[in-house]
Design brief:
35% of the residues lie in helices and 21% in strands. The strands form five sheets. A seven-stranded mixed sheet has the order 1-2-7-8-9-10-11. Strands 12-13-14-15-16 form a five-stranded mixed sheet, with no helix packed on it. A five-stranded parallel sheet has the order 18-17-19-20-21, with helices on both faces. It binds MU-OXO-diiron (FEO).
Length: 398
């Protein structure tokens, strides 16, 4: 159901309560999501974004109940990824010829997705589109998080439509940040940043500075996923600046997988050593074969140190760690220390290979932890004592 945000702006998006995986199977969405689209009515009518393709028909029906489609003057496509552009093919069949405003890269992406030659109008930063008494100001935001991404700002209402930035995968009935469960909201925001925006942190900082330099008043931020920031919208901007600055908390994450519990027992002993090194340190353990990978990535993002363990299998390490470390490598976390560990029976390559992969991920491996730690077969009391000592030393190095 649609709702009015201001006299001029109406939310016309879709709450997706059932969504559990996003970006194919790559991103977990434990609490669903929303695809936010906005209708702006002044002398002219503009539609900002659509929804994901499976909901295109529902979207059009809902939009039709809200407005005569023939009165839509402009379509704004801030981002071509199909969770926002999926409604365009059906919509543009009904209103062919209506201009679609997007960046030059947006044209490439939209054509690449839909192979349609819609009436594209390419815009650049600072360009304005008059709606009557209000204007839309376009702000290109390349690589936040696709090359085509842009924001737009509505004068008169002082609203920034920020697309994916400041968004979060959280379905709620009350669509404002002050109505959401604050813990769930914070958790989904940091997960979104850690898993999607980390590689672009330098651009995040620059874009926020650029927007601030425009001196535009800001009453609300309307992202394209999750709740609308109407209560102190600057709070999420401040969080982004904090997260973009090689973020870390006083935490170590121990991430392992195990076959017959040897590596698990090593992980637990190292956790005890870390706590001995610093009782104030938050130590968290995750079995990569059982815990959600995006949640683990979020915990690594929050950590200053990471210990990664796997037994040796077929001269390598377990596939759950392989998939996870590939995600971590692409995200390019900075200013974090790491070391490897694992149990083995005969050849025992996992620790050496994990150490190399941790370096490839951009982690600093302290000299004292360079060789990692291995335990043959099931760790006995001596081996566990060595793991405790390894954890203690690693904790001291932080
Ligand atoms: Fe929400 Fe980049 O799409």
């Amino acid at each position: 159901m649609t709702f009015k945000i201001t006299d001029a702006v109406t939310w016309v998006g879709k709450r997706d309560w059932e969504l559990r995986r996003f970006h194919g199977e790559e991103y977990s969405t434990h609490k669903g999501s929303t695809y936010n689209a906005y209708l702006v009515r002044d002398e002219k009518t503009a539609l900002i974004e659509t929804v994901w393709a499976p909901f295109a028909h529902e979207f059009i029906e809902q939009l039709r109940a809200e407005v005569d489609l023939k009165t839509i003057d402009y379509v704004i496509a801030n981002h071509a990824e199909s969770d926002h552009s999926g409604g365009l093919p059906e919509l543009m069949r009904l209103i062919p010829g209506v201009p679609v405003y997007c960046t030059a890269n947006g044209v490439k992406s939209l054509k690449g997705h839909y192979h349609q030659d819609w009436n594209f109008q390419v815009v650049k930063t600072g360009q304005r589109l008059s709606l009557g008494s209000r204007e839309l100001i376009f702000i290109e935001a390349p690589m936040l998080h696709w090359p085509d991404t842009m924001f737009c700002y509505l004068t008169g209402e002082d609203i920034l439509f920020s697309n994916d930035a400041f968004g979060h995968h959280l379905a709620t009935e009350g669509m404002y940040n002050d109505l959401a469960d604050p813990c769930a909201l914070e958790a989904e925001c940091i997960k979104y940043y850690a898993n999607i925006l980390t590689p672009f942190s330098a651009l995040v900082k620059r874009k926020i500075e650029e927007f601030a330099s425009l001196g535009l008043p800001l009453k609300m931020i309307c992202p394209s996923h999750g709740t609308i920031w109407r209560d102190n919208p600057i709070q999420i901007v401040s969080k982004y600046l904090e997260w973009a600055n090689d973020y870390q908390e006083h935490q170590v994450s121990i991430v392992y997988d195990t076959m017959w519990n040897g590596t698990r027992r090593m992980a637990e002993a190292m956790g005890e050593g870390l706590a001995q090194a610093d009782p104030a340190l938050r130590v968290r353990l995750f079995n990569a074969g059982k815990a959600d990978k995006n949640d683990i990535v979020t915990e690594i993002f929050r950590s200053k140190g990471v210990l990664v363990g796997s037994p040796t299998i077929n001269r390598g390490y377990l596939s759950s760690l392989g998939g996870l470390l590939e995600m971590v490598r692409g995200l390019g976390f900075k200013r974090k220390k790491a070391a490897a560990f694992g149990a083995y029976g005969w050849s025992g390559e996992s620790v050496k290979l994990l150490t190399a992969q941790l370096k490839e991920c951009g982690f600093e491996v302290p000299a004292a932890s360079e060789g990692g730690i291995r335990a043959m077969w099931n760790p006995d009391a001596d081996a566990l004592a060595q793991c405790r000592a390894f954890g203690l030393e690693f904790g001291k190095s932080l």
